[in-house]
């Protein structure tokens, strides 16, 4: 397997002060991190520039969202062009909190992905099912529907700029992690969907991250699964254990 291990840290709307932000970055800067892992951290928009300036250069910085327009009368939004101009190379799109709290549809996420890639950003594309959908046996169908909207707007070569994060909504921030088998099965289904909807080559190369209550205690077993190429980490990315998760394959 040649896919590089990839760990993203989604700070969400944390921390609440610049002092706490600086100590978080400082602890990451001091940590002994596996040089074989690609690490991307996503602070809140207001902290993107100071974090980008302060963080070690082997850690990349992502926005947690962006809009589809370069500029204009769109109060409260951040444009992909502005992110690129600020030296930010990544963006998280389609996080379940954006989908549920801010009513982003799969088509919105697909359009944002299209524009982000056109502007030069790389994308962590989040997908995943709710508990009701899992219990109804719809995990595969839901993930495929979310992906289909993106497949419709991307060309094959665009997928080299995309990392998929499979994040079951019932596992995000709940302390209820998917079993290794649930994660592996969902990842294998996503990869086989990409093989049929895009190409075998893209399916082989695309990194599929697991997200949902990943901790230092559960990351090593998850990281052993064949189709788990890394993690998108929320809560634990704000703690020293984030370094252990980055080093899950060490
Ligand atoms: C996330 O926000 O993407 C996430 C996976 O959160 P947590 O790790 O806290 O479940």
From TrEMBL:
Q: Which GO terms describe its cellular component?
A: cytosol
GO terms, molecular function: triose-phosphate isomerase activity
Q: What is this protein called?
A: Triosephosphate isomerase
Pathway this chain belongs to: Carbohydrate degradation; glycolysis; D-glyceraldehyde 3-phosphate from glycerone phosphate: step 1/1; Carbohydrate biosynthesis; gluconeogenesis
- EC id: 5.3.1.1
Subunit architecture: Homodimer.
Similarity comment: family membership: Belongs to the triosephosphate isomerase family.
Q: Which UniProt keywords apply?
A: Gluconeogenesis, Glycolysis, Isomerase
């Amino acid at each position: 397997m040649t896919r590089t291990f990839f760990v993203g840290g989604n700070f969400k709307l944390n921390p609440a002060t610049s002092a706490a932000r600086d100590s978080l970055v400082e602890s990451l800067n001091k940590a002994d991190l596996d040089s074989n892992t690609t690490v991307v951290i996503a602070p809140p928009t207001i902290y993107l520039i100071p974090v980008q300036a302060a963080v070690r250069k082997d850690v990349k910085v992502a926005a947690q969202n962006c809009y589809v327009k370069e500029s204009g009368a769109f109060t409260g939004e951040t444009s992909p062009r502005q992110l690129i101009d600020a030296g930010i190379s990544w963006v998280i799109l389609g996080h379940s909190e954006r989908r549920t709290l801010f009513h982003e549809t799969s088509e919105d996420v697909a359009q944002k992905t299209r524009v982000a890639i056109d502007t030069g950003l790389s994308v962590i594309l989040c997908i995943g099912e709710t508990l009701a959908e899992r219990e109804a046996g719809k995990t595969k169908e839901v993930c495929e529907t979310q992906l289909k909207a993106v497949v419709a707007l991307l060309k094959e070569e665009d997928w080299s700029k995309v990392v998929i994060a499979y994040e079951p909504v019932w596992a995000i921030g709940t302390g209820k992690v998917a079993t290794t088998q649930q994660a592996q099965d969902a990842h294998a289904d996503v990869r086989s969907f990409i093989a049929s909807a895009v190409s075998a080559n893209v399916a082989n190369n695309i990194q599929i991250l697991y997200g949902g209550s990943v901790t230092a205690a559960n990351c090593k077993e998850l990281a052993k699964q064949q189709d788990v190429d890394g993690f998108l980490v929320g809560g634990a990315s704000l703690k020293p254990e984030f370094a252990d998760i980055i080093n899950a394959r060490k």
